[in-house]
Design brief:
The chain is an alpha+beta fold. The chain contains 23 helices and 28 strands. The protein folds into five domains: about 160 residues, D-Maltodextrin-Binding Protein, domain 2 (3-Layer(aba) Sandwich); about 90 residues, Periplasmic binding protein-like II (D-Maltodextrin-Binding Protein, domain 2), CATH 3.40.190; about 100 residues, Beta-Lactamase; about 130 residues, Beta-Lactamase; about 140 residues, Histidine kinase-like ATPase, C-terminal domain (Heat Shock Protein 90). Strand 24, helix 21 and strand 25 form a beta-alpha-beta unit.
Length: about 800
């Protein structure tokens, strides 16, 4: 009898409130422009597609349509000044087929899907319908699905969006499929399962039945249904009209719509036992929790201060390393050797200051200029042949002498050394230019007089020699070695000129094969000879030497090689030190990144474990107070409700902080982590995302898994901030011992060639991270055509097996 009176009172209250709301309701006045008003005049009747499903759409006793979506559309069409043509369909598939055939103009209550974007244009969400956890009434408070014991089973309608979400995000749950929401609630009543999951709309209908009166809402799974108005994509003007009308609709009317068609009964407690005693215990407990929180906060503050001091020290060391790198670049720019980086199309990509001064150009003027500007005789065919030749040599180099054309039109004889280089995703030929004007003059003087040659050779800061071959296939001998050999290597010239000695007797045993190979190539090709390596002096001191010779065929198969052996020990040691410094700098960067990820993981564990435990206790105590004191003092009920909301917010904040530092989903594998991150991005940005990950993937080392995950996060952040995309496709696959990740968006894209140094630090960070993982990163983008990011890492043989 008491429940009947309560129901009648509630019904009377709803009737009075609806009547009052109708009297207070103001007419909608959207601000349509002239084109929109003209379109509405041409379309006085709009075809509205509806799917019959309570409480959204249903037929009353007089066969008229009622429901939340019907009332909403009547209100909106009234604001637009048009009449509805209601069209009912059995399911959403039938509705979409009718829209594709042009039989429907708009439809309410749809959820945005990637497939639906081809048919509909969706409005902003106008109603949020959560999925709720329902169980029998008890004093246990809210249910946390993450900590649900294995013996407790959850029933839900399957297949459904909620079932897919729980299977993907709550792997600890034991789920039981039910043919309908009513069957799921019946399983709870039969005590075959502990809880059931239903959406708020279905639950509001089922709770009216008396057999479900003892069930109550005990939690929320965190997956809301976002309902939108959909218009056909071939009617963009109607879409703008609907958006403006929906914006003009007061939020109060949407709330009234929810209260009218989806009223829910939440459990209330009418017991009042020991109110003041409970209140006193609660306040004492609250004081204890506050003191504990203050103590924890002070501890965290001290830990953060120590971490900040350590980070400052690391930053100082990083700045010192960067300064050393700048000094290295300064040394390269001001060296005596000109350095040019040339692309396959013979255009210059880099020139140091020595090359610019040598050729008479201003700073940066040589960049993007063709190499034929310096050597007019070097056409594209000759350049491609030279490129192929040097590229096939791999780590070797090619040297020759040319007359460079300077900026003022004068000629500069230069010694050119070509070396092949792969840098990141590009290939270059590195051209080393040395001004050989003086050397050419010395060679001319040597040809005039042998005596004069010896005089000049004795003053050259190196070992000058002449290598002769009388004819093809005959032995070669050193016809001349300058007296500088005594000072440079400790051996007199006549000793080195013996047939069993020569310069090869000075070469370090480990470098002897390269020496003999370069000499053999020069002899067989009657070409210039270039070699660089280590030699041993008479005192067994190791020197770095550079041999450069010029071949002069004299006819009849006789060839003379005039050359100099330079002592380049200081330059070579500096070069090796520079390479070692760069390697150590990259190792330092990798170590810093590893330390930072470990620190994030440690902080995430402490935040989740320590603060989570405190919040759980506080939440349980608040729930107990609510069960004991609810309904006695309205002000206390409001305070308890406010505290519960704050605790829920703190729970979410703790989860967000711990997840941002190191998502625990990484422990489930990189595939699960990628799918979880993409779904979070989709929920946060409302951008439809398609994810393709393999079902069976070997477990990656922690460094590789974290590296790929961070690259995905940075790529999705760039999509959100810069791309303006409507959809995103993320793929993860394994091929040929490699693990590949691609992120593709249909945004505005950009021109990669227009990026300037110092910009796009996010892309630079991703590239550096891939280099540290030993992988490759490629970014393909064009303005207006979207962007695709490819990341590829090599899997260890053990991981692949």
């Amino acid at each position: 009898m008491k429940s009947l009176l309560s129901s009648l009172s509630l019904l009377l209250l709803l009737v009075i409130s609806n009547a009052w709301a109708e009297s207070q309701r103001m007419p909608l006045r959207p601000a349509f422009d002239a084109e929109q008003r003209a379109w509405l005049r041409d379309h006085p009747v709009l075809r509205v597609g509806l799917v019959q499903q309570a409480p959204w759409v249903q037929r009353g006793q007089n066969r008229q349509l009622t429901g939340a979506n019907v009332e909403l559309m009547q209100r909106l069409l009234e604001g637009m000044g048009v009449a509805p043509d209601w069209r009912l369909y059995a399911d959403h598939e039938s509705l979409e087929r009718a829209a594709s055939a042009g039989e429907v103009d708009l439809a309410p209550g749809l959820q945005q899907t990637p497939a639906g974007l081809r048919i509909w244009h969706y409005s902003m969400p106008y109603l949020r319908v959560p999925h709720l956890v329902v169980g029998e009434r008890s004093g246990n408070g809210a249910v946390d699905l993450d900590q649900l014991p294995l013996e407790q089973v959850v029933a839900l309608h399957s297949p459904s969006q909620a079932a897919e979400y729980l299977e993907r995000t709550h792997t600890n749950l034991r789920l039981r499929a039910a043919p309908s929401e009513r069957a799921a609630l019946q399983l709870v009543l039969n005590q075959e399962v502990s809880y059931a999951v239903l959406d708020e709309a279905s639950l509001s209908q089922l709770l009216h039945e008396s057999r479900f009166a003892n069930l109550s809402i005990v939690g929320d799974i965190g997956l809301p249904q976002l309902l939108r108005l959909a218009t056909r994509r071939d009617q963009p003007l109607l879409s703008a009209i609907v958006d403006q009308t929906l914006q003009a609709l007061p939020a109060r009317e949407l709330e009234e719509l929810r209260e009218t068609w989806m009223p829910l009964r939440y459990p209330q407690s009418s017991d009042f036992v020991g109110f003041w005693k409970t209140l006193t215990l609660f306040l004492a407990l609250l004081l204890l929790i506050g003191a504990t929180a203050l103590y924890r906060q002070r501890q965290q503050t001290r830990l953060l201060e120590r971490g900040l001091l350590g980070a400052r020290g690391e930053l100082d060391r990083h700045q010192q390393a960067a300064e050393a790198l700048r000094l290295s670049q300064f040394s390269i720019d001001h060296s005596t050797v000109g350095i040019l980086w040339v692309n396959w199309d013979s255009h210059l990509r880099y020139a140091n200051r020595a090359a610019e001064r040598m050729l008479g150009y201003a700073a940066g003027e040589l960049v993007d200029k063709p190499l034929s500007l310096l050597e007019p005789g070097l056409d594209m065919d000759r350049w491609l042949a030279l490129w192929k030749q040097v590229r096939e040599q791999g780590g070797g180099s090619t040297s020759f002498e040319i007359d460079c054309l300077r900026a003022d039109g004068s000629r500069m004889p230069a010694d050119v050394s070509l070396s092949f280089l792969r840098y990141r995703q590009a290939e270059y030929l590195v051209v080393f230019l040395s001004d050989v004007t003086e050397r050419r003059r010395a060679r001319a003087a040597l040809e005039e007089s042998e005596a004069r040659f010896k005089g000049i050779a004795g003053n050259v800061p190196g070992l000058v020699f002449r290598l002769e071959r009388a004819g093809p296939g005959q032995a070669v001998n050193f016809a001349y070695i300058s007296e500088a050999s005594q000072e440079m290597v400790g051996w007199p010239a006549h000793e080195l000129q013996r047939e069993d000695r020569g310069i090869r007797s000075l070469v370090h045993p480990q470098d002897l094969p390269s020496y003999l190979n370069s000499q053999t190539l020069a002899l067989e090709g009657e070409s210039d000879w270039y070699w660089q390596g280590r030699i041993l002096t008479a005192e067994q001191e190791v020197l770095w030497a550079d041999i450069r010779t010029t071949a002069r065929p004299l006819g009849g198969g006789r060839v003379v090689w005039d050359g100099i052996l330079w002592d380049i020990t200081e330059n070579k040691l500096a070069e090796l030190a520079l390479a070692d410094s760069r390697a150590r700098l990259r190792e330092l960067s990798a170590h810093l990144e590893s330390v930072r990820e470990e620190e994030k993981a440690r902080i995430a564990r402490e935040v989740h474990d320590e603060l989570g435990q405190v919040l759980t206790v506080l939440k349980l105590e608040t729930a107990m107070c609510e069960l004991v004191c609810a309904g006695q003092i309205p002000e206390l009920d409001e305070r308890l409700a406010s505290m519960k909301r704050l605790i829920a917010q703190l729970f979410q904040l703790v989860r967000d902080v711990a997840t941002a530092l190191r998502p625990p989903i990484l422990d489930a594998g990189i595939a699960s982590a990628i799918e979880w991150q993409v779904r979070r991005f989709e929920e946060r940005t409302q951008i439809p995302c398609l994810v393709e990950v393999p079902e069976h993937l070997p477990r990656l080392p922690d460094a590789q898994a974290i590296g790929l995950f961070r690259i995905l996060q940075e790529a999705l952040t760039n999509v959100m901030r810069h791309a303006g995309a409507h959809s995103v496709v993320v793929r993860l696959w394994q091929e040929a011992g490699n693990l590949c990740l691609s992120v593709t968006d249909d945004g505005k894209g950009f021109d990669a060639a227009m990026r300037k140094p110092g910009q796009s630090f996010g892309l630079v960070g991703m590239q550096e991270r891939m280099l540290m993982l030993g992988g490759q990163l490629q970014i393909d983008s064009r303005p207006g055509e979207g962007t695709t990011l490819y990341a590829r890492i090599t899997l260890d043989e053990e991981v692949t097996a």
